[in-house]
Specification:
The complex is a heterodimer. By secondary structure, chain A is mainly alpha-helical. Chain A has a single domain (3-276), classed as ABC transporter involved in vitamin B12 uptake, BtuC (Orthogonal Bundle). Chain A is built from ten helices and two strands. The longest helix of chain A has 31 residues, at 3-33. Chain B is of the alpha/beta class. Chain B contains eleven helices and ten strands. Chain B has a six-stranded mixed β-sheet with strand order 6-7-8-3-9-10, with helices on both faces. Chain B has a four-stranded antiparallel β-sheet with strand order 2-1-4-5, covered by helices on one side. In chain B, helix 3 packs parallel to helix 7 (137-149) and helix 7 (137-149) packs parallel to helix 8. Classes of the chains: A mainly alpha, B alpha/beta. At the A-B interface, helix 6 of A face helix 2 and helix 3 of B.
């Protein structure tokens, strides 16, 4: 096999890791709260700025800066739920979409106002590994490994704990969980915090690879949303697998064409698949 | 034990319960019978806090439970087996039981409760790892009852436990109700299957168009001409 193609495939797998982490977060929130956070990628952007300022500007050690960003975004997740989602929880889906869409523009504009449109880099230079004449970015390898650890941790949390079991239960039958002694409002808060923390973890991993600017959310937000729809909105495992399908299309498309063209391939694939399987790849 | 005094409730502008009063003593099994749409399910949902009563008071062991949200009513000691079982289909049997023990007091004694429930319903132990949605209707009803028992309730509410089940399975479900009674639990059971429910309860109320029309011991009601003609086809 062509060594450059193999390199593209491996990079595709590595890219899929971080996308999967974000798809898990978005799906978790949708599955439980039944609202799509259109602004999810822009919450990640806030986390990237937090890491940039903490680490690159104020010299906070990187692991601590990451820990602060993750817990900060968990808190931001709760705030988003309390201030924006909770008031429209019983409203028609279109209103909910507009509310979280409004937050997207708010965050982008607010970031532009505060920080300008400069591209900022945290300036961590990780080595590029050369394996059998293939060049693999160490930052991507780390991001992939940590994403998988995050996904596995989330799996065990949902599978083994009372709170995790309650989260899965509420996604299956919202109306009767009260009869089990579960306060749905507290579950919504917990899920929003977890979704925020996952966005924070993704922000740490993305900050190692990309410059942060107010519109960075636009580069991967639509892709994550597409992945979730492709895997079946709310279907965590479907979204996880779809992340790797889409990242492969982007990686291989980039190899045969260009990076810009690879997104055209990915979205064309998505549109065609939606016509054939409108409820996602894994709909029964 | 559980007392309702002049409770009225509505869905929006549709009033479903009109000044319903009833009382259940400790260790008693009481039935509420009546036709479709009489307000039986509404009554259960009002007691467990899924629907708010707009008038009247409810007490459990003398303490007011009126207006409490559902998740707090469970902590007071009332467990509700909902109509159509409503198991979490994609959770295993044991995960459904774990959710039943979500409240802190039950969580602390989870393994003890689980042993007790498995002893009561050995079939569930065999099926513990199976997804609840893949079991037969009778097994699902058994699991739904077990899930409610996990919270160690003082009063068990059962909404149409025999609905949608084959006649042979219905007999088995009423056998389960007998078993639970033998454990000393206080039971309030809503049923359309009048003949069979009157065999397992001490007393019953007849609910029609949201109001109580008749009340009496099971033996009395079995002899009552209104009940015999309208509900037992005799």
């Amino acid at each position: 096999m062509d060594i450059y193609l193999l390199e593209a495939i491996i990079n595709g797998i590595l890219l899929g890791g971080v996308l999967a982490l974000l798809a898990l977060g978005l799906n978790l929130i949708f599955g439980v709260v039944d609202v799509v956070w259109i602004c999810y990628a822009d919450i990640v952007m806030c986390g990237m700025y937090a890491i940039y300022f903490l680490y690159a500007q104020y010299g906070v050690p990187l692991p601590l800066a990451c820990a602060i960003a993750i817990s900060g975004l968990a808190g931001l997740g709760v705030l988003v739920h309390v201030l924006i989602i909770a008031p429209v929880l019983r409203s028609p889906p279109l209103n909910q979409l507009l509310a979280t869409g409004g937050l997207l523009f708010f965050l982008q504009s607010f970031a532009t106002l505060l920080f300008g449109t400069d591209f900022r880099n945290i300036g961590v230079r990780l080595p590029v590994l050369e394996v059998a004449t293939m060049y693999l970015s160490f930052a991507r390898l780390i991001a992939f490994a940590i994403s998988l650890v995050g996904a596995v941790a989330l799996y065990f949390f949902l599978k083994r704990t009372y709170l995790g079991t309650a989260i899965r239960a509420i996604a299956q039958d919202r109306e009767i969980v009260g009869l089990m002694g579960i306060d749905d409002r507290r579950i919504y808060l917990a899920v929003s915090a977890i979704g925020g923390a996952l966005a924070g973890l993704a922000a740490c991993l993305l900050a190692l690879q990309y410059d942060v600017h107010p519109f960075i959310g636009n580069t991967f937000g639509p892709v994550i949303f597409m992945i979730c729809v492709l895997g079946g909105l709310g279907n965590m495992i479907g979204g996880f697998i779809a992340s790797f399908v889409i990242s492969q299309i982007i990686a291989i498309g980039g190899y045969y064409g260009s990076t810009e063209l690879s997104y055209v391939f990915a979205f064309t694939f998505f549109i065609v698949l939606m016509l054939i399987r409108p409820r996602g790849l894994f709909a029964p | 034990m559980l007392a309702l005094s002049s409770v009225s409730a509505a869905y929006g502008s549709f009033q479903a319960l009109f000044s319903v009063s009833l009382e259940i003593k400790r260790g008693e099994a009481v039935g509420v019978i009546g036709p479709n749409g009489a307000g039986k399910t509404t009554l259960m949902r009002v007691i467990s806090g899924l629907i708010a009563a707009h008038e009247g008071t409810m007490t459990l062991e003398g303490r007011a439970i009126t207006g409490l949200p559902a998740h707090q009513v469970v902590e007071q000691g009332i467990a509700h087996v909902p109509e159509n079982r409503r198991l979490f289909p994609a959770l295993s049997v044991e995960e459904n039981l774990r959710i039943g023990a979500f409240i802190p007091s039950a969580r602390a004694r989870f393994s003890e409760r689980l042993d007790w429930v498995y002893q009561l319903f050995p079939r569930l132990k065999e099926r513990r790892a199976q997804l609840a949605g893949t079991m037969s209707g009778g097994e699902q009803q058994m699991c739904a009852i077990a899930r409610a028992l996990m919270s160690k309730p003082k009063v068990l509410l059962m909404d149409e436990p025999s609905a949608g089940l084959a006649p042979l399975v219905v007999a088995q479900v009423f056998e389960l109700v007998r078993k639970i009674r033998a454990e000393g639990l206080t039971v309030l059971i809503v049923e359309q299957n009048v003949q069979q429910v009157l065999e397992v309860v001490d007393r019953a109320y007849l609910l029609e168009v949201g109001a109580i029309r008749l009340a009496g011991s099971a033996a009395e009601l079995k002899q009552n001409s209104v009940i015999r003609e309208a509900y037992m086809g005799l």
